[in-house]
């Protein structure tokens, strides 16, 4: 004879399994959707502009449990994972804004090294000014102004979203910040962007942003690149609309993996990283 408690647990487990099946179906739907629309990596284009462009990275199909979608009694619920990073250095993000793009000062024939000293380790980046002169010039200017110092990498996407990136560069820490000016997108035909093997992705005009790529976030509108950028930790299909800025070095990839492995808060496919990934200091120098 099955007791009431055993029956209750059986029903709870069956409900949980149905929820898991629905989530998996939603993940498959999200991956198909990624092949049909441009993923909306968010950036604010100017002071007072709108928040995230949701696109394929919105909080819809599989962006984490709600209170109504929690695991039933007797089964584990997701919790905030461990933080593998150190405490941030003392200081606060800047509130500086500029009305226009800075004057061109970089050597357009040179490469530049960007060094992000983060609470999780160093992220070393090589930038090619010949391919993206305005973007590299902007980073050189903003880093010299301390714009990136004490800013948190606010967004991590992963399994279930279809893309694998860490997004940084917003002093507000919520995806709405920018320097007050915008840039035109550059270097969109860089051979670093590969053709996908999936015919649906090809048909949708996607390219593969390979692991180790640094690119600029933007809204769906042209000429909307600001200060936010994303670090790709696993090959990711995206519309070739996001300026490829540079490549991450070996040390930086280890740091990025540490952050990605810690996952997003709540166990979702898109959200705030569990890791306290704060840029204590950003510097740019000519290589």
Automatic annotation (TrEMBL):
Residues in PPIase cyclophilin-type domain copies: 121-284
InterPro entries per UniProt: Cyclophilin-like_dom_sf, Cyclophilin-type_PPIase_dom, Cyclophilin_A-like
Gene3D superfamilies: Cyclophilin-like
Transmembrane annotation, as ranges: none
Biased amino acid composition, Pro residues: 79-91
Superkingdom, natural source: Bacteria
Region Disordered, residue ranges: 1-33, 63-104, 264-287
Isomerase keyword on record: yes
Coiled-coil features, chain-numbered ranges: none
UniProt keyword terms in alphabetical order: Isomerase
Pfam family, one: Pro_isomerase
GO molecular function: peptidyl-prolyl cis-trans isomerase activity
Ranges of Basic and acidic residues composition bias in the record: 1-24
Record-linked PANTHER family: PEPTIDYL-PROLYL CIS-TRANS ISOMERASE B-RELATED, PEPTIDYL-PROLYL CIS-TRANS ISOMERASE-RELATED
Function, in words: PPIases accelerate the folding of proteins. It catalyzes the cis-trans isomerization of proline imidic peptide bonds in oligopeptides.
Protein name, entry field: Peptidylprolyl isomerase
